[in-house]
Design brief:
Blueprint lengths: L1 H13 L3 E3 L35 H13 L3 E5 L2 H13 L5 E5 L4 H10 L2 E5 L6 H5 L8 H10 L3 E7 L10 H9 L5 E4 L23 E5 H4 L7 E5 L6 H11 L6 H16 L1 H19 L6 E3 L8 E5 L7 H12 L1 E3 L1 E3 L2 E5 L6 H17 L24 H6 L2 E5 L12 E3 L4 E4 L7 H12 L4 E2 L5 E5 L4
Parallel strand pairs: 1-11, 3-4, 3-5, 5-6, 6-7
Antiparallel strand pairs: 2-8, 7-8, 9-10, 10-13, 12-13, 14-18, 15-16, 15-17
């Protein structure tokens, strides 16, 4: 079985597939390291210790701190997930209130449950045009942040995601100003924006816009191994001792030196190749969009507040769903996308994509576009996240303690979710434990299952709900 695992992985990686998905190194031979076994050591004298860095790890952290102009940049080997858990733990104590963007990643909701926090939600702005019709969440507005903070004077910190999975960027500077008026910290999940600091024409990183803690997944959009990430601390609103304790709690006590070496190699690459890679990447990306602007039925969607390396392809005018488009691109053209949902699919481009990658992707879309038919007007209805946030009956940590029962999803309207329910990717919950299933949500989830999407928290058409409280 172990040999089967390695053989399957090796055979897959030998296929001629265009990887329009993470990790950001795209298996590009420009990003190489020696035999991994030769670098796999532990905390022995001479190679430092992530949890007490004083030598080479400290040097790398200090170098990154200087480059980002942060107060301190920390290395993460358990992904952005551990950074998010640590950041929230550093800012909140059990029972505290936290202001949370409703479209945050599941790791945020896990932190809320673990710490017994009381979330106050802010809902993303509804986008105009095709992006809104596709159900893609818009930016978080500073005015909404101010309103919720005014209504809840005891909130201890604010947590938002920017950019989103689909590349939507919020006004971090405006949000930071609103949050700091209450003298509380702002945490930004910038997992999908690790490349912002390295490409001048792209949105500015939250590190330079006033956020207090910023978490970036290097592996998503830069040439680094999966699980590598960094956490940037700025300003003086963070309890540094509690942050360090949280990082030691959520990170492995035996951190991988391979992953830390990958972080070092990643930054060596982007600093050395910064101007060359950024220039060629932007040119290749612009050429891709010029080629796909001729699409008649499919459509590549852009907007002003967007990271254009997230390539959103709408199937709304065709008979295809996003999932069917993803499958056809792989089967016919050897192009693998990152994800699909409803009437769109998503590709991820990075500085490690070659001109050939972009060219094959564009030609595949154009060729497929010519073979498609328009959807009949009004005949198309697909899975979407664009539903009203559910009513909360209790907090997630309270629901966790209650007896649970399993029922048919079709009969769940009015029942209280005992577990989070979400599509993965992107990992944004439809329902959080403690919230009430609405009929609208049940209908959308049933549509999703019929369309072949994997909805986590739903197994064989059944969900776990809390026993009714008498």
């Amino acid at each position: 079985m172990s040999n089967h695992f390695f053989t399957t992985l090796s055979q897959y990686c030998k296929k001629d597939i265009v990887p329009m998905h993470m990790p950001g190194h795209k298996r590009n031979p420009l990003c190489t390291m020696p035999d991994p076994y030769s670098l796999d050591v532990t905390e022995v004298p001479g190679v430092d210790d992530l949890h007490h860095p004083v030598e080479m790890i400290r040097d790398l952290m200090d170098e990154l701190t200087k480059y980002y102009d942060s107060k301190q940049t920390y290395l993460l080997v358990n992904g952005s997930t551990c950074g998010i858990l640590a950041a929230i733990t550093a800012c909140c104590y059990p029972g505290d209130k936290i202001l949370v963007a409703r479209n945050c990643h599941k790791s945020v909701y896990n932190a809320i449950k673990l710490l017994g926090l009381r979330p106050v939600y802010v809902v993303p702005h509804r986008l105009e045009g095709m992006l809104g019709e596709l159900g893609i969440a818009g930016e978080i507005e500073a005015s909404e942040i101010r309103r919720r903070l005014k209504e809840n004077s005891d909130i201890k910190c604010a947590m938002i995601t920017s950019p989103t999975y689909e590349g939507i960027v919020s006004d971090i500077a405006g949000i930071a100003e609103a949050v700091h008026e209450k003298n509380i910290p702002l945490i930004v999940d910038e997992a999908h924006g690790a490349h912002f600091n390295w490409i001048p024409t792209f949105p500015e990183t939250a590190v330079r816009q006033g956020a207090d803690l910023v978490i970036e997944s290097l592996h998503k959009t830069l040439p680094a191994f999966t699980q590598t990430a960094v956490l940037h601390q700025t300003g003086n609103r963070i309890d540094e001792e509690r942050l360090l304790w949280a990082l030691q709690t959520y990170q492995s006590s035996s951190p991988s030196y391979l992953l830390m070496a990958s972080i070092a190699k990643c930054f060596e690459y982007v600093k050395t190749e910064e101007s060359f890679s950024a220039e060629h990447f932007v040119k290749n990306l612009n050429d891709f969009y010029k080629k796909t602007d001729s699409l008649q039925k499919l459509e590549t969607i852009r907007c002003e507040k967007m990271d254009l390396s997230k390539i959103v392809i709408s199937t709304a005018r065709t008979e295809l769903t996003g999932q069917q488009l993803e499958e056809l691109l792989l089967e016919r053209y050897g192009v693998q996308l990152e994800m699909s949902c409803g009437n769109y699919a998503l590709g991820m481009a990075t500085i490690c994509d070659t001109a050939e990658h972009f060219d094959r992707f564009a030609k595949a879309l154009c060729d497929l576009d010519r073979s498609l038919s328009y959807a009949e007007k009004g005949a198309k209805k697909t899975f979407t996240y664009n539903i009203k946030p559910p009513e909360q009956r209790m907090f997630s940590h309270e629901a966790e303690r209650l007896p649970k029962k399993e029922i048919l999803l079709a009969e769940a309207a009015g029942q209280t979710a005992a577990k989070d329910v979400y599509l993965y990717p992107p990992g944004v919950p439809f329902a959080v434990a403690g919230e009430i299933f609405s009929q609208e949500m049940v209908d959308v989830l049933l549509d999703g299952q019929r369309s072949g999407y994997e909805v986590r928290g739903v197994e064989n058409g059944r969900v776990f709900v809390c026993h009714e409280i008498k």
